[in-house]
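Board work, copied verbatim: Caspase family protein
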Amino acid sequence: MAALRFFLIILAVWLGCGPAMAEKRVALVVGNSAYKNVARLANPANDAALVGGMFRKAGFDTVDVKLDLNVVDMRKALREFGSKAREADVAVIYYAGHGIELDGTNYLIPTDAALETDTDVLDEAFPLDRVLFAIEPAKQLRLVILDACRDNPFAKTMKRTVASRAIGRGLAKVEPTSPNTMVAFAAKAGSTASDGDARNSPFATALVERLPMPGLDLRKAFGFVRDDVLKNTGYKQEPYVYGSLGGDDVSLVPAKPAAAQGPQANAQDSVRRDYELALQAGNRDAWEAFLQAYPDGFYAGLARAQLKNVAAEEARAAAAAKARQAEDEKARLAAERANKAEQEKAAAAAKAAENARLAAEKAKQIEEAKAAAAEQRRKEAEAAAAKALADKQAAEKQQAPDSTQKVAAVAPTSSQPTLSPAETAKLVQSELRRVGCLTATADGDWNASSQRSLTLFNKYAGTKFDAKLASFDALDAIKAKPGRVCPLVCDHGFKADGDQCVKIACRAGYRVNDDNECEKVQDKKPVATREDAKKRDTERKQTEAAPSKPQGSGQITCNTMGCRPVKPGCRLVHLGVRGEPGNGSEVCN
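↓ predict structure ↓
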């Protein structure tokens, strides 16, 4: 056992990047409030002073607090801090002020920026990559905290030189390429943050409370920050963290030394300590060494779950690499215009590799959820054992009040926040909305709609949580999902576009059919109508029954006074002697 513990400690020392190993920690804190061309921001200067004080109390070697920097001063501050980061193990930059997203790139805005047109952003603001470049030389941890997700007034007045150029709301999602690099946003990509009504923003207040906790891993600390901000903003603002760290705990303040074990320490303490060392190392060698030393028992089962999680991650990484190679080969053949058979073969291989990658990703998520559940069971079991031991020691103390032997109770190891059922339900609902399994609002009422959404998550994530209640196990498993889990379902007339349903727009002369596709509108042809025979017969009978109107004969009579037409109803009769023609006479009926 001693050899195993020594091996695990060596692994932890070799892989670890915790604060206890950090020889030098440096921080740059920038707060831009006094903007010259837009309204002044109230909180950034206050937040910078608060966060800077937090870094000093945390024992950082160098903390530079800079307020209201113009473009020249900001460039100088980043250049000088880059020199300090080259000699540091941990480098942190905190920025509070205005930021803007242009065509998917995030920029930090100095106080003298005007940004009259979109092209001015390139000259008057600093891309986030420039900030990441400044902290890149740090040896163990690189952390950027951006409280710059405010509703940006520059975007409202800025003129577009290209109509299609996108200027987003808030900041865009980032994917740091350097290892052990984290970027924390005050609000998730595409949303804005609130300054609040107090002297400091809700995000800065939560940072100062959570980050300096001794021995608290940064990932968990930012998780608590997220919970605090959601609760304090009525679940309207959700901080988000991008990037990844290794398997070791990384904290800003080293953990306090553990108290020496009493003479009546639990017999499983040595196994637990070795398990925690293996958990800190987090690789295959550590878990296999642990199982070799402890092949049976409670911790052996937990170790096998963690080993399966490591194996799933290795399989996922291998499948992802194979998928990238297949895509590259497919693109190469297409660029070289290879024959159709080769391209089809490469396309089939790329599709198979992508399917294998998706399967490995799903398997990884399942094993990750199982490992998280196993870790939660461990914490609950240790807490129950600690409570039982404390109760036993209290009972023994009551039975032997004169005994001089004092045994310290072991504190529970669980670090879950104490929240009411409604608050827990609200957090789970918020996460279910993020992964696309819940469309209703997060109101803390765990009703039938919320239960159906957790059932959907179980279906698509491969988990088996009890849908009748909102638990921390389910919350942790949902948090582990980086993107959408449940498929997006849109109403008729709408289609899925990323994580949103957008209305289907058909060109003139087309409409949306029952299959949600645009089809041409058919011209309406005139319909022949049959004449109403009954109406026609009635009109004919009325006409025949009416007395005939007198009509003129068309004859003309003449005399010495002149000629005129014969009156209507009259006719001209010629009278003569013995049938000879004579003068015409007008005879009327």
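The longest helix spans residues 340-399.
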